[in-house]
Amino acid sequence: MKVALDARKINDFGIGTYILSLVTAASRIRPDWQFSLIGPSAVPALADRTNVDCLPCRGRGYSPADIVALSAAARRAPADVFHCPHYVTPIGLDVPMVVTIHDCIHLRFPEYLPRPLGVLPRSWSARYARTLLRRTPRVAERLIAVSEATRGDVIDLLAADEVPIDVIHNGAASFWHQGAAANATRSRSIAWVGNPMPHKGLDVLLDAFTRLAADDPDLELTLAGSDDIASRCAGHEYGDRIRTPGFVSDEELREIYRAATVFCMPSRYEGFGLPALEAMAAGVPVVVSDAGALPEVTGGAALLVAAGDVAGLATALGNILADPDLASRLSAAGRQRARGLTWELCAERTCSSYVAAVGGTR
User: What's the pTM?
Assistant: First the structure.
């Protein structure tokens, strides 16, 4: 089997983690298959894989010019099936396509989209994203949804009920499991990872932290994942106890997880919620909102609170901070849950989708 894949975002967070982790696992479990990555001129992490090659492509974004560049590169790639790891699909391709949908936030919450060029109406971005997303069921042989929650959104919002949709969860790499579990008695700190987009619930967490910090002079908060976070915390009443390291390496992030007493992901919407899974793998107790795929991903191994509920979030976090036994139970349950969601399993099921897309049996 020859698989070509849009890997232009392989060095990004989120989708980049998905692409690299998937190809790393798939190229190992299918050594007789060939994987062609369109985008980077080289991927050092895959340099030792003889069944992985790179086909350079300059375009890397979502603009019409980028789609034209991707389409030209995709037509040159030797492939039995083409995998689009997000909703940008090439034009004029004569091989079956498999498209992964991570979320439908652009349709659920168009108000969160950026303004084109920073000044044009946000509605322009919404219409463009809607056009790209709604094209996927028409051109894809199969769709992959990273959660049942996302599958439901795809059916409801993209009129994709007649297209085969495979629900294939993301995974937690063994890297996050390595080392000792987080020590809930070593520190009194809350961790959060992400970007400060409105749906991530950072405002809710900051308000909950304010309530807790007023009665707990030793409590700290670590917010990692974006250099934009520091400005969001400027002037906070307890800003001297908020750490904002910005972008961090995986090694640094693993230490942030382990040093925390509790990890929090109070998003208003998530198509999956990979940081919550990584935190559970690292052994830190987790609190998430009940929105989107987060209850599905955490699988009963985390405390759930209503999205947007500041008081409820403060209570859940406070319970873990005050109860080492509860923290220990959640840590063990989280690690167990994370062991059941691996990139190897994701790759195995994705390869089955490729076979089904070209007319084989799963």
Answer: 0.92
Statement to judge: residues 134 and 206 lie in one domain: no
Distances (CA, A) of 77 to 32, 37, 56, 82: 18, 9, 11, 9
Tokens of 312: 């409820």
What confidence tens digit (pLDDT) does each residue in 248-281 have?
A: 999 999 999 999 999 999 999 999 999 999 999 9
By residue range, what is the domain housing residue 311? 174-339
Q: Do both 148 and 240 map to the same domain?
A: no
Task: Provide CB contacts within 8 A for 22, sequence distance 6+.
Answer: 85, 343, 346, 347, 350
- Same domain as 37, residue 153: yes
Domain with residue 99: its CATH number is 3.40.50.2000
How many residues in total does the chain contain? 362
- 235 and 352, same domain (yes or no): no
The whole-number average pLDDT for the span 311-321 is 98
